[in-house]
Specification:
By secondary structure, the chain is mainly α. Helices cover 72% and strands 0% of the residues.
Length: 484
């Protein structure tokens, strides 16, 4: 690494640091925890359909049933009779199911860039709060939409996507005012780890609700929790340290002084130099690549567990959640390690971001390919998919928060841009995977894993070549004066 590339423009690394304010009970860590619960719900509301769908579809609809019976032996030791069979069943074929699972992302992609722009104008608090509130309300309407017809269900899922589309850009925008540079990895990893935790809890819990109650309650329970969270968010959170009611004077000064040379006072957004920035496109490529694997597994893992490995609905929920529990742990730990390396070991920001991204993308690619080669070995299949998803957690302290390194003032907009591209895999990934696995053979699923691993590998290499850890010239106030 050349010195000029590795050098960090983060002022805290060069100047005497203000006394660090303790993390315990601080306003910034309270924000991280409340955001963690928010993203817990964001992902719980997003993935619950993946499990419920297994119960919503008539068993004989899928051609897979006849084919899979001789691929792997039935794994469950008990006869698989659901405790509750009162839920409505629908005759949706595999392709229709793919469109239902993908429809969420058609709404999600639309509000990414507008979400980042609006957050920079009106603040992230209202945007994130009402985004999750709206998604929760539409989740409560999901059973009604399913009864009215598949078109209504697809529409409601797309509307949920519209609501959730603003959440990540809004949160990034808030952190640009709240996160001291040397605490970024810690604070953002805590808040975004909620997403994995939501997956961990909602997959098995949705399975249990379907098993013992009825699939409609999956949507009623999580939707109600989202509305409840919204009340706490609106009551306890502020957009900036200056407007927070109960923040200590010391903490406010600590945050503001650490960010003083990093934020732009310009009202206009430097769109042209922003869109011509290679470090931004490095994040775009990495984000797209990582999400291809992530969304393919997120939406189709329950199906893979049921149709290929033949776990029953109850086991399916727990085993589908295991990879995301590993990822959640990895996100929390890697956030602490990343900031330790930057602060105590004087690693440059760009070095940490590149290393963590390489581990978080090449590792999953290798284990995902391996998962397709172990046939009906249940233990190894679950272990490999779990290791693959766990290692992906390193990316949260890699490309995932690199927006704040290169342009803190425009972090919400940058995330809107990268997440727009990164949403495309959520739209086309499940549809392509479903179309490749019509017969649900092990060979077909190997092809799904190959594609995901290849895309991951390309993204990792591209990011390693072109990423940056410095605040870009166009992202600070002086740039505009220079140009004029």
């Amino acid at each position: 690494m050349e010195p000029d590339e590795g050098e960090d423009r983060t002022p805290l690394l060069k100047e005497p640091q203000p006394d660090t304010v303790p993390a315990c009970c601080s306003a910034r860590y309270n924000l991280a925890l409340l955001a963690c619960f928010g993203f817990f719900l964001v992902y719980a509301l997003r993935v619950n359909l993946s499990v419920a769908l297994v119960d919503m579809v008539e068993p004989n609809t899928s051609s897979a049933k006849n084919v899979t019976s001789n691929v792997c032996p039935e794994h469950s030791s008990t006869i698989n009779v659901p405790r509750n069979t009162t839920g409505e069943k629908y005759s949706w074929d595999a392709e229709t199911q793919g469109w239902i699972l993908g429809s969420f992302f058609y709404g999600y992609i639309i509000t990414q860039i507008p979400g980042g722009y609006l957050a920079s104008r009106i603040g992230g608090k209202l945007l994130l709060g009402f985004g999750i509130f709206g998604t929760s309300v539409f989740t409560l309407l999901t059973p009604l939409a399913a009864n009215l017809g598949v078109g209504y269900l697809i529409a409601v899922r797309a509307l949920e996507g519209l609501g959730e589309g603003v959440t990540f850009p809004a949160m990034h925008s808030m952190w640009s005012s709240w996160a001291p540079p040397l605490e970024r990895s810690k604070l953002l990893s805590i808040s975004y780890a909620g997403a994995q935790l939501g997956t961990v809890v909602s997959l098995p819990l949705s399975g249990l609700i379907c098993y013992y109650m009825n699939w409609v309650y999956v949507f009623y329970i999580f939707g109600a929790l989202g509305v409840l969270w919204w009340f706490f968010w609106m009551l306890l959170v502020s957009d900036t340290p200056e407007t927070h009611r109960s923040i200590s004077h010391a903490e406010r000064e600590y945050i503001l002084s650490s960010l003083k040379d990093q934020l732009s006072t310009q009202k206009s957004v430097p769109w042209r130099p922003m869109l011509g920035s290679l470090p931004l496109w490095a994040i775009v490529v990495a984000h797209f690549s990582y999400n291809w694997t992530f969304y393919t597994l997120l939406t189709l893992l329950p199906t893979y567990m049921k149709e290929i490995l033949r776990f029953d609905a109850q086991e399916n929920g727990f085993l589908s959640a295991l990879p995301y529990f590993g990822c959640w742990l990895c996100i929390i730990l890697s956030g602490q390690i990343a900031d330790y390396l930057r602060e105590k070991q004087n690693f440059s920001t760009v070095c940490v971001r590149k290393c963590f991204t390489l581990i978080g993308m090449i590792g999953p690619a290798l284990f995902l390919v391996a998962a397709g080669f172990i046939g009906c070995n249940y233990a190894l299949a679950v272990a490999f998919v779990t290791i693959s998803t766990t290692l992906g957690g390193f990316c949260t302290s890699g490309y995932s928060i690199n927006h704040l390194d290169i342009a803190p003032s425009y972090a919400g907009i940058l995330l809107g841009i990268t997440n727009s591209f990164a949403t495309i895999p959520g739209m086309v990934g499940p549809v392509i995977a479903k179309s490749l696995t019509h017969n649900n053979t092990v060979e077909e699923w190997q092809m799904v894993f190959y594609i995901a691993a290849s895309i991951n590998l390309f993204g990792a290499i591209f990011f390693a070549l072109f990423a940056s850890g410095e605040v870009q010239d166009w992202a600070v106030s002086g740039y505009h004066l220079h140009r004029n």
